[in-house]
Amino acid sequence: MPEQADGLRDEPFEPEVLQSDLVYEGRVWDVRSDRVRYRDGEMVRQYVDHTGAVAILALDDEGRVLLIQQYRHPIRHRDWELPAGLLDVEGEEPLAAARRELAEEADLTAAHWEPLVSSWTTPGGNDEMIHIFLATGIAAAETAHDREDEEADIRVEWVPLADAVDAVLAGRMRNGILTIGVLAASQRLRDRG
């Protein structure tokens, strides 16, 4: 049975793109419309062309995860999230972006970093890949960052990881990246025993 589980993986597939048009150029991401040859015909698909992103599951020595809460206009909620940000610096590797984002959003650094999980956020509507890192050995950054707009009133809480898992499973916290991160971290820590 384990051999079959190891064989489960996403499969690259690249049908011929006959035409790709920029429908909307945004400040953060764009919208594209592609005409694609698929099987015996053609299809048109519109999607958000995204830069990609990183998120950080920061875990302190007491087993608490750092959560931030901020306003998200599309859902009209102040949802709980992991610190995260765009891969919008030319040539910046995901780990470097994660270090930068933890400092920018939470004024923290971490001594130890490891990849936790990567996920396409909404593959039917965008091409965003988010890389979630587990960060431990947490310390205060030397300087605090200025924040504006939604980030100006970020609420920061350290929550026991088990409580975050419970809130996700009970449907009290619904952010997809938070869900993936806390469940993956819980499993990783359980596997380590």
Describe this structure as you would to a colleague.
The protein has 193 residues and is of the alpha+beta class. It folds into two domains: 2-49, no CATH class; 53-192, Alpha-Beta Complex (Nucleoside Triphosphate Pyrophosphohydrolase), CATH 3.90.79. 23% of the residues lie in helices and 42% in strands. It has helices at residues 2-7, 94-106, 161-169, 176-192; strands at residues 17-25, 30-38, 41-49, 53-58, 64-72, 77-81, 84-86, 108-120, 129-140, 155-160. The strands form three sheets. Strands 7-4-9-8 form a four-stranded mixed sheet, sandwiched between helices. The chain has a three-stranded antiparallel sheet with strand order 1-2-3, with no helix packed on it. It has a three-stranded antiparallel sheet with strand order 6-5-10. A hairpin with a 4-residue loop joins strand 1 and strand 2 (30-38). The chain is globular.
Give the secondary structure arrangement, pairings included.
Elements: H1 2-7, E1 17-25, E2 30-38, E3 41-49, E4 53-58, E5 64-72, E6 77-81, E7 84-86, H2 94-106, E8 108-120, E9 129-140, E10 155-160, H3 161-169, H4 176-192
Parallel strand pairs: 4-9
Antiparallel strand pairs: 1-2, 2-3, 4-7, 5-6, 5-10, 8-9
Helix pairs in contact: 3-4
